[in-house]
Amino acid sequence: MSITELPPTTVSPAYERLSAARKAEVVRELSNVLGERYVLHSPYDLTLYEYDASIDRGKPDIVVLPATTQDVAEIVKIAGRYHVPIVPRGAGTGLSGGAIPIYGGIVIVFTRMNRILEVDVDNLRAVVQPGLVNLHLSVALGPQGFYYVPDPSSQRSCTIGGNVGENAGGPHTLIYGVTTNHVLGLEVVTPEGEIVEVGGTTYDTPGYDLTGLLIGSEGTLCIATKIIVRIVPLPEAVKTMIAVFDEMDDASNTVTEIIASGVIPAAIEMMDRMILQAVEADTHAGYPMNAAAVLLMETEGLKESVAEQIEQIVSICRKHHARVVRIAVDEAERQLLWAGRKNAFGAVGRISPEFYVQDGVVPRTKLPIVLRRVSEICEHYGLKVGNVFHAGDGNLHPLILFDSQIPGEVERVRQAGREILEVCAQAGGTITGEHGVGLEKQAEMALIFSDTDLRIMQQVRTAWNPRQLFNPGKLFPLPGRCADIKQL
Amino acid sequence: MSITELPPTTVSPAYERLSAARKAEVVRELSNVLGERYVLHSPYDLTLYEYDASIDRGKPDIVVLPATTQDVAEIVKIAGRYHVPIVPRGAGTGLSGGAIPIYGGIVIVFTRMNRILEVDVDNLRAVVQPGLVNLHLSVALGPQGFYYVPDPSSQRSCTIGGNVGENAGGPHTLIYGVTTNHVLGLEVVTPEGEIVEVGGTTYDTPGYDLTGLLIGSEGTLCIATKIIVRIVPLPEAVKTMIAVFDEMDDASNTVTEIIASGVIPAAIEMMDRMILQAVEADTHAGYPMNAAAVLLMETEGLKESVAEQIEQIVSICRKHHARVVRIAVDEAERQLLWAGRKNAFGAVGRISPEFYVQDGVVPRTKLPIVLRRVSEICEHYGLKVGNVFHAGDGNLHPLILFDSQIPGEVERVRQAGREILEVCAQAGGTITGEHGVGLEKQAEMALIFSDTDLRIMQQVRTAWNPRQLFNPGKLFPLPGRCADIKQL
């Protein structure tokens, strides 16, 4: 059968909610495998697993906590027999609703599969379980002088399995790439409950790059049970600096010129006035509250090269009218500057009851015009917006403030979000940099992919996951979403 | 239909050789699209396309030279109507037989699709056609201060389309990764003749990473017609050095210690005595002819960091008893050292009528033991072997010398090659670093993949390319290979 002859997959598969009797049966089978303790099914126990860090919600029927790959394979087989959807969940920090069980079913939580299985320093590899918290790997490697590069802002809680599912990025993506650039191989469980290894410990394994295909597939193709990652030596020197601007455009143009000059810092983050004020009130990191924009930049490497990079960056900042350029004098100040950035989303919580984060990408050179359009769009809808983002990558994160108690406000927020993504797509960019498509951006996939492109992708899903029990309703539009999704 | 329910694909599809009448018909249809001039079909014209840089051979029925994506799509549709296999071909420099039309059919040659379509320096992107010679891109970018990183030793002739098909590497893979790390998006023609775009200009596009899947798929899933690549600024400083050792183990241990120390040079290449003698006789690059091994190393970046790296590398080399450490004093000497390395395969042609290059990968720490085993295996079969390889990556290239006029020698060479790959696999490595599987290593896939792993891969092929007209007989074993393959 040809990939283009496969049936279209936009028709919703039938997921009947489990009856009480049937649910009891599934719970019993799962308990036989995992022990009763690791099969949650009371309404109270399930509440925690209804939401993640997005704005959607959905109730699971059962939550399971496997301890081994074999457990996961058995769970998948049981789910298959009862035709029950399966949603894998790391720490629930995802921003696009990837871990929301919109059709109910079984949520697999990886809390118990959180071990570092192997560290091979000489060959710069480690093997970990999916439930390992991102930061814990670097903490464990630190004493030996190594770390794991991808550093989402949620790295203190998010898991490496979740990072693999969403192909997560972070501030240091600029120079080091996203999760897919740091994962060399996976052990996965397929929708049939088979255990398969893809990739390996080397850079380029023969045959198809299934590792690349599976990373970022948002739980729709497989469930990762073991992850082989690259580890790298800690840099000899790290310097962190901020540059303060009275005009957003000056900050944007600084970013473009730094990159084009050939200096590629490890990170270039931008924060605008609204964010600076929120961050400063919250973290007291020493950010100016009256500036139009601040760039937080970091360079790392050998001492001498860091010193030279800093010199070049300072001179480019000055050329673009930076009011102040300040280099952190010690590790404490450096950590404080980063704490301000990494807690920015939380800090915004102080000034608004709710907020919605967008995640568009544009070519760096288009930053000035796109940031202006973001302001105009939000102004048009009477919404406040702040920007805190990976400027070096052109990866925007506009935070739109709102209050769902105000009638119509949520719809205006969603509409503004959509228009921002349209602007990003028109500028030659894309609709998500690192947060994933999930439930949030299914419709927006059409902004950047043709019907043929989307059909090819959906048919890859159909080939792997024909009954669509693995994370159904994500990535591609499905009609008839369940009624119990929180209707914003 | 489930991916695991798809029919097994190891059964050879029926490719009947085209009858003269039918061939005339196909030629006529192709000529209507391309013009007669760009459809080659006389035995004389076809001779050139029977072989690539591997040791296999196969006669095409027709060779076509398309000028546009639309041409390629039309060719694919015509081939589909007549059930004729299609093999894409770049410059024919591949070492694993990927461009050999073992079942005959149509070979698509991309000589006319060799343009740079777009260069966007500010956003570090370029868009090229598949027939562009690898080095031509860097040459074109040079005056603006940029280059394209992947640099296979054949870069003066190989094409970027071919590099995409094989996921090619090169000496600088060590720090910068292989082709897949430098390609962000593709326009491809599917086996149905549809034109599809995958990926884009940004790092992480939403949905499945089909770009990753297609790169390195060796022509079995699609034909690339447009390639979006990353370009990077030329480094401020580059220093190249050689270290001369009297013992292979000292050279190997130096490599391991350099990497583990956190200094990651841009390249670490190793050459053994046999190769040094051949290279020196050919290129007069100033390599010692009586050493056991030489490491050719390069560091690049900002001036200061290069100076510091060189200092650290020299001290590690001395610790491991390097007899001499010499840094190229100027660009001319640097180019000469590299010319010696990049012409090594050619130089070996001076001392042996034929040679066979293997391409295994092992963890760096296993280099000493594996190199010893390579010697023992070749000695056992009475064969001479030289080693010239990407030591930093643990990517071996043993060159086994032979003379096919000596009865039984070819079979001994193949057997030695097989045993070397077994040793690599047992050492936790893999069977090809950068040359691909092609025709050469189909059987060896089983050394590193389980039956389930291989079935999943083959079923991906079946889903995309159900009639297996795209480069049939490659990557996975197919019984009943054609009789006109040169039987070594």
Structure write-up:
- Chains A, B: This is FAD-binding protein.
- Chains A, B: Keywords: FAD, Flavoprotein, Oxidoreductase.
- The structure is a homodimer of 488-residue chains.
- Chain A has 488 residues and is α+β, with helices and mostly antiparallel strands.
- Chain A is 34% helix and 19% strand.
- In chain A, the strands form five sheets. Chain A has a seven-stranded antiparallel beta sheet with strand order 15-12-14-13-18-20-16, sandwiched between helices. Chain A has a five-stranded antiparallel beta sheet with strand order 5-6-10-8-9.
- In chain A, a hairpin with a 5-residue loop joins β8 (183-189) and β9.
- In chain A, α9 (273-283) crosses α11.
- The first copy, chain A, is globular.
- Chain A starts with 19 loop residues before the first helix and ends in a 24-residue tail after the last helix.
Q: Per CATH, which architecture of the domain at 116-233 in chain A?
A: 2-Layer Sandwich
Give the strand content of chain A: 15-25%
Unreliable residue stretches of chain A: 1-12, 479-488
Total number of beta strands of chain A: 20
How much helix is in the residues of chain A?
A: 25-40%
Q: What overall form of chain A do the CA principal axes indicate?
A: globular
What assembly state would you assign to the polypeptide chains in this entry?
Answer: homodimer
Secondary structure tally, helices of chain A: 16
> Which structural class do the helices and strands of chain A define?
alpha+beta
What is the typical, i.e. mean, pLDDT of chain A?
89
Instruction: Report the CATH C-level class of the domain at 116-233 in chain A.
Output: Alpha Beta
User: Radius of gyration of chain A, Cα only, in angstroms?
Assistant: 23 Å
Count interface residues per chain for the largest interface.
A-B, 94 and 95 residues
Distance between the termini of chain A: 41 Å
Q: Name the strands of the widest sheet of chain A in spatial order.
A: 15-12-14-13-18-20-16
* CATH topology name of the domain at 116-233 in chain A: Uridine Diphospho-n-acetylenolpyruvylglucosamine Reductase, domain 3
Q: How would you sum up the major sheet of chain A? A: 7 strands, antiparallel
GO molecular function (chains A, B): FAD binding; oxidoreductase activity
Keywords (chains A, B): FAD, Flavoprotein, Oxidoreductase
Protein name (chains A, B): FAD-binding protein
InterPro entries (chains A, B): FAD-bd_oxidored_4_C, FAD-bd_PCMH, FAD-bd_PCMH-like_sf, FAD-bd_PCMH_sub1, FAD-bd_PCMH_sub2, FAD-linked_Oxase-like_C, FAD-linked_OxidoTrans_Type4, Oxid_FAD_bind_N
